[in-house]
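RECORD TYPE: protein structure
NAME: Alpha/beta fold hydrolase
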Amino acid sequence: MPDETTDHAVVHRTITVGGVEVFYREAGPPDAPVLLLPHGYPCSSFQYRRLMPALADRWRTLAPDFPGFGYSGTPDPQNFAYDFDAYAEFLDTFASTLGLARYALWLHDYGSQIGLRHAIARRERIAALIIQNGDIYADVLGPKYATIRAYWDAPSPATRRPLEEAVSEDGFRHEFVGEVDDAVAARVPPDLWTLHWPLMDTPVRRALSVGLMEKLEANLAWFPRYQDYLRTRRPPALIVWGPEDGYMPEPAARAYLRDLPDAELHLIPGAGHWLLETHFDAALPLVRDFLARTLG
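PREDICTED:
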């Protein structure tokens, strides 16, 4: 009889991708259908540490740390652009290096931008999408974009300063607990910022974090392309969403139905941007049911 603990365990590996040493987490049988898990900001593959073993009985899950995040290497900015194009190319190379031919793709936060660029480039690989608080509709962006928009509208040291201040341990803490009520916030482990911030507190990593916020403006030009991909390709999609999200409130979730009218939409009451931390037990059955029907 197989060892259930071993079968369901998350293993931690490194691989060289484009000359960068990349850390990634893996769980599940090597021959099982694959779910690829690019992470969001300001986190790393750590955000999937509970999800991966909970799916490992039937699916192979893979979650890399992007270059400049988590335990992956931090290439010289002259060699790696630290923009959404560079990260999409990285994700493509990571999947190719591991020989992944077809897989479902999780889209969350910055990972939604990166993942959809990858999906557009590799349409034949994408079997399904799971969309969790990832924004691609400019008309429904939430109030927390106000600070970033102020910089976009009038770039200056004064408008850039709040972006720099957000790249801090306290700024990271606010990203994780700043929108949900106190009872929900109490479910979020402080490890998310106290352990991740020391990994990010280097000159290059602080600069790339601010730079990604700056580059979100140029990324808006990609939103119609993401929408066209969804509208024309119509991949099977599960939308599992925390509506208490200052960047991506409930209308940002419903907007996906414009281009994916057959998508399954689940708004989890009380949950915010990090619902896998606070409402995991509500989300997991939805994910398992969707994967069983669409991925095998």
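COMMENT: Residues 203-219 form the longest helix (17 residues).
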